[in-house]
Amino acid sequence: MAAALNLNLFLLAINFLCTFPFLIPLSESQIAPSTQDDRAGNQSQNQTSTICNHTSFSFLPHGYRNQRGFICLHAGGSVYFKFLQDKVNVTTVFLSREKFSGWMGFGFSKDGGMVGSPAVVGWTGGEPIDKNKTKVEVKPGIAKFFLQGKDEANVISFKGESMNFTDNSPFVITNDNLFYMGFQVKFDAPLAQQYVILAMGSDQPSIQNNNSKVSLTKHTNQVVMRVDFSSGYEESAAHGHGLEKVRHGLLGLVGWGVVLPFGAIIPRYLRGKGGPQWFFLHISIQIVGFLLGLSTVLFGCLLYDKLPSQQKSSLKAHRPVGIVAFSLSILQVLALVIRPHKTSKWRKYWNWYHHWVGRLALFLGSTNIMIGLSIGEAGPPWKIGFGFLATIFLLTVACFESSAGLPRSKKSETASVFGNG
User: Fold this and answer.
1) Which of 50, 121, 333, 410 is at a distance of 20 to 30 A from 21, taking alpha carbons?
2) Once rounded to an integer, what is the mean pLDDT over residues 151-156?
3) 119 close to 144: Cβ distance less than 8 angstroms
4) 214 strand-pairing partners
5) d(CA 295, CA 16)
6) Residue 238: Cβ-neighbour burial (10 angstroms; 0-12, 13-18, 19+)
7) What is the pLDDT of residues 329-351, one digit of tens each?
8) Which of 323, 328, 354, 327 has its CA nearest to residue 339?
9) How far apart are CA 130 and CA 177, in angstroms?
């Protein structure tokens, strides 16, 4: 019996050791796909940041060469942008990022969402990578767009009457391994605190009807920032939201994807082997999981309060599912308090309550992880990470089943996945 207990503990320890090192790279990743740009940006940050240190660029068009008084902000990765608003409501915007192939857009949003926003998009030029497109090389260019909807068909080129270019024509230039883009627009009123959207795509746009229509591919990366154009103060950059997303997502992934599931299977495979140690191990792990779940909720609330109203509307499923899952976990904690003695006639009903509330909580928690990865536009490391955790958990269960040496039907009559406590 002691040997079986030691084997099961050894298997559990091995799987935990396989799981947690894999989570370390996730803690260094943005939950949005901007991680690829961040890695590239770290390699060229010194080079790219020179646009913030210089006020004169001789290779730019005449109206953009002198940039004295410009405010310079970091938008994530290798992307920087500078702006200046003058007394007649003319705003000059200048962007730079490491040389790439695709397009980059800068939009002005009322609420942080893309729908209803005017934008300026510049593209590098080159051969499209989409196999469905005609293999005709696209020349570098820049155009004004109106974001009428979220799908590609509703991103309309050469529209956006609320944003008019000045006589200084917009431009795109590649120089010294950096891509530059600039434009100058006049608004009816001065900009104050204003949401801006920076989006990037990895493919060339489709040019149709003798350059009278430009169709963009779906963006691969998007950053929302709130900027005070009157003072240059960046109130809430995407990096701040990105870090809070990482904290919220990582805590949820560890708590609901690792700790609680592993703690839940302990009664099934260790109960009745080597005394009551399994009970204290089960309780200890589940309390840690509950605290991680509590931290997930707290960071989620902080993140929610800082999100624009339009982004909050995308949480119609994620937020209530999380609240229900966490409420069920509270009921599981209360189950420890009201746990009747084994000889009590109420013990059977308590077992039913403890088992099914726990199962439902874990199901909702895992489902909410997938919902969160979807609405948070999580990059491949997060999706691969969640798949890895699920695989490790299933392998752990398979190893325990093999080591137990009992038919599943017989064991299920004596101990459920959550145990009888």
Assistant:
1) 333
2) 80
3) yes
4) 207
5) 21
6) buried
7) 999 888 888 888 888 888 888 88
8) 354
9) 24
Q: Helices 347-375 and 260-270, interaxial angle, to 10°?
A: 150
pLDDT tens for residues 28-42?
444 433 333 333 334
Question: Are 73 and 237 within 8 A, CB to CB?
Answer: yes
Is residue 262 within 8 Å of residue 415, measured between CB atoms?
no
Question: Are 188 and 89 in contact, with CB atoms under 8 Å apart?
Answer: yes
**Alpha-carbon gap, residue 91 to 341, rounded angstroms:** 73
Q: What are phi and psi of 223, to 5 degrees?
A: -130, 135
Q: How confident is the model at residue 50 (pLDDT cuts 50, 70, 90)?
A: low
- β-pair type (79-85, 141-147): unpaired
Q: Which residues contact 132 (CB under 8 A, 6 or more apart)?
A: none
Q: What is the pLDDT of residues 351-377, one digit of tens each?
A: 888 889 999 999 999 999 999 888 876
Report whether 404 contacts 411 (CB < 8 A).
Answer: yes
**Mean predicted confidence (pLDDT) in 276-282:** 84
Element (H, E) at 194: strand 193-201
pLDDT reading at 291 higher than 60 = yes
What is the helix (H) or strand (E) element at residue 198, kind and residue range?
A: strand 193-201
| CA dist 309 → 105, 226, 401 (Å) | 22, 13, 48
CA–CA gap between residue 260 and residue 271 (Å, rounded): 17
pLDDT digits (tens, 9 = 90+) for 234-249: 444 444 456 778 888 8
**Which among 250, 251, 254, 248 is positioned nearest to 393, based on CA atoms?**
254
Give this prediction's pTM: 0.50
Token pair of 286 as six digits: 């589940």
